[in-house]
Each structure stands twice: as C-alpha cells, then as structure tokens.
Input
Amino acid sequence: MALSHEHHQLDLSGVTFSYGNKMVLDGITFSTHCGERLALLGPNGAGKSTLIRILAGLLTHQGGEVSWRERGISEARREIAYLPQVDNHQRHFPIRVRDVVAMGRFPHLGHFKIFRKADREQVERAIATMHLEEIADRQIDQLSGGQQQRTYIARALAQEAHVILLDEPFNGLDIESRCHLSESLHDLSKTGHLIIASHHQLESVTEIFTHALILERKQIAYGEAAEVMNSQAVKHTLHSCHPENHDRAF
Amino acid sequence: MIEPFDLHIYQRALVASLIIGFVNGYTSGFVLLHRSPLKLTALSHSLLPGVAIATLLVGLGVLSAFFGAVTAAVSIGVLTVLLARTTKIGDETILAVLYTGAFAVGIMVLSRIGSNQDLDDWLLGNILGLSDLDLSMSFFVGIIAVTMLSLFRRSLILNLFDSEVAASLGIRTRLLDYCSFAILILVLVTTLQAVGCILAIGLIVTPAAIVRPHITSPNLLFPLSGIVGAAGSAVGLFLSYRYDQPAGASIAATLAGIFLISVAIRALFSRA
Output
C-alpha cells in the first residue's frame, strides 16, 4: 500500500519533564516520520514511559517543543493512538473485542454523534486487518496477551491514527505472539503509520524497529536502529548500566 | 393479586418503586462498571449527617438535602485523602472510621430534630409515605440521571474501561468522574426517603449485579438493569403488603433474592 502520509513528521526539540524536583527527561531532541518504527530504550526510570505519555497527551512537557505536522501535539489527538500495557484495563469488564475496537471511533464521534454505517465499516475493516474476525464477539478478558494487543492495535486503526504509541508491547507475550506482533508493526509502518514503542529486549531491537532512541534521563543516542545498537558509546552506556543484562534486556 | 394496588397509598408507592427502581437500576450499571460499591456504601452513610444538618439549618427539601449531602460527601472524601496521605493508615480503614462516625453524628442530629419514627424513615425509608412533591422530585432527578448517563454513556464506558486511553482520546476524565458522582449523590438523596440510607445501597448496586452474568456488552447493562430494578422493586413492594413486612426491606431482600437466582441460572447454563 502507498504511504499516504509518509511526509508527516513528529518533531521534539529540547523537551524536558520533571516530577517535582526530579528531572525525568532533559533536552530530548529528535525528528521522526510516518513509516518508521522507533524503539525507546533505557533502564527502568529512564523516562521511556514518561515520553510516551507526553506524546499521548497524558502529561504536559515543561520545556521545549513537541510538534506533529508542524502543529502543537494537542491539536492532533485524533491522529495519535495510545496503547498502554495490555493489563492496564479494568479486569472482568463486560466488553467484547468488537466494542473495544469501536472505542477508536470516539475522536470522530465525540459524545453525541450517532455511530453510523461508515463507522461500523471502519471498525470491521480494522478487525479484519488484525485478523480478529473469529474472536470479535469474545470477551476481552478471555483473550491471550497477544490477542489483546492485536485488539488494541485494531482500535488504533479504527481511530484512523497515523501515530501508534505502545508502552512495552512485547511484555508478557509468548514467542509466537511476539512474532505476530512484530509482523503487525512491520505491516503498520508499511501502510504509513509511525510506530513508537518503549522496549527493553535489546536482542530484538534491530529486527523489529528501524530507529532507536536511547534514554537515561538525557538523550544518549538517536538514529537508525542498527547504527545506534552498534555504536561503541551506546554499548558502553548499556554495559555500564546493566553489565549482567547486556545484549539481553534492560 | 392486584388487590393491594387498588389502595391509593399503594398505587402511589407502586409508581414510586417503579421510578426509583428504574433510576437506581440504570445508575447501578455505572456503579458495577466503576467497581465502587464499597465506596458507595461509605458515601450513602456519609450523606446522612449532611442531610440532617441541612434539615436542621434550613428545613427539609430536596435542594437543601442535596447540598447538605454533597457537602458531607466531599468533606468525608477530602478528609480521607488528607489523612491517608499524612498517616500510615490505609484509606479504606480511614474511610470506614469516618463514614461510621459521620453516620453516628447524623443519627444524633436527626434524633434531636425529629421523632424516632422520622429517624427510622431516614434509616430504613418509608416508600408508603412519599408526598406528591417527593414523587415529582424523584421523577425529575430520574430524568436528569438517566438522560445524562445515556448521553455520556460512550465516554463513560471508555473512561471506566481504561481511563488513560480515554484521556488520550480527549475525554476530560476527571470532570466526567465528578459529574458521575454528582449524579450518584442526587439519585441516592432521592432514594433515601423511599428505602432509607442503609437499604439504598442495595437498590443502587443489585440490579446491575443481577444482569451482569447474562450480558457480554456494556451497552445493554444500563437499560436492562433499569428494567430489573423497576420490576424487582414492584415485586418487593407487593410482597411487603402480602406478608406485612416493611416495604424498603422487602424491596432490598427481593432484589438480593433475584440476584441469587440470576447467579444460579447462569451457573446452570454454564454447565449445560
């Protein structure tokens, strides 16, 4: 499929964020665009989730600028989908996969607009794209972690989002589900989506992502995934942070 | 079978039980999805001193009762948060201490301003003694509650399912929470007079619990719970006449009985 919005760009310039007196992000600066898959890497507390939450509009950065398509990020809520960790939702909630996917239509419908045929078709397309047809009427809590992750990606597709933010999407998935999710992320970037995910499994970064951003409060490195992961400076940083986990995971 | 409803007093009580049962049932959908029945128990008990003090100061009326109830609920809520932050005692323990304390103050204030019968009415309700004004207020509060919960159902469900995703999609989640709880307080205040503050919690929790085992989607939960609430309340009222029992207690017990039957039916069908 053609990359209809490949030129859509996300720019961060000198972004800072602190919780009280504790600086969590300091001077984060990079640009990325649709079609790329960006991994956010760093040890626990490095600011990965905070950066994702800023991009999702859940936190407001205190310094620097974040712009999407040369506009403030708050004006682009419809185009940015946020997928928290799969166990973030309330357990035992009586809801089917189809209903969860339909939630993606909220930015288009708001509180009051009627859910029309076009919305239903968009939801069914998203379900088909993520191969969820057979489980569309199942309760969300009956699904495996991988199936839940696919459901949430389908919700992002129903939202017609250009940017998909994922918080530790590979956490708790078995090998098969990891492979399926990795394939899905590749497919999404091929269809023009920008994927940004926090990640902690170093050995799979270059297979899954095109770019990598190494954080440890400050920005340690940013660039193409292979280049960043092979850089001596980054290896040194990763090694000094977690020598026993080097080349495995943060 | 319809003999009791030939009596004017029971006809009025039937209308009240249908209205209050439906409104509480509809609202119980929210309570179930919010998973907050214990907090709601605390809330319903902490309303009593607010209502009592407002009655003492400006006389009994739905508006004075509402503002008294809101003041009491907010005070207890804020005090719970403050004490939980400044002490090492868990917030549920603090809430339990504060709401029983507030409830006790409410009982003392009501004892001072009224007779024991009035106190019983506040604690256990008196659906047979509702005035035309009480019925009208229940009706209008019901219209407001059901309309608001229906209009905002899409965002409410999203917020209850995953509030972070809801916020990322542009929903003002905190405002939605405040408005939802204002509606809950409003419904509770109008329910107090019918079934009392102890039994009110059964009416605003049980109908959705009856419906929950049989549904897979939240969209049906609200209207079905409303219907179950209304039907259960009417049956409870009829049984109270038939067996000469207090109406509020009969309604709460009937709903609890239907809940057990509902769970048993679900278990039987699951095995089949």
User: Anything to note?
Assistant: The longest strand of chain A covers residues 22-33. DSSP finds nine helices and ten strands in chain A.
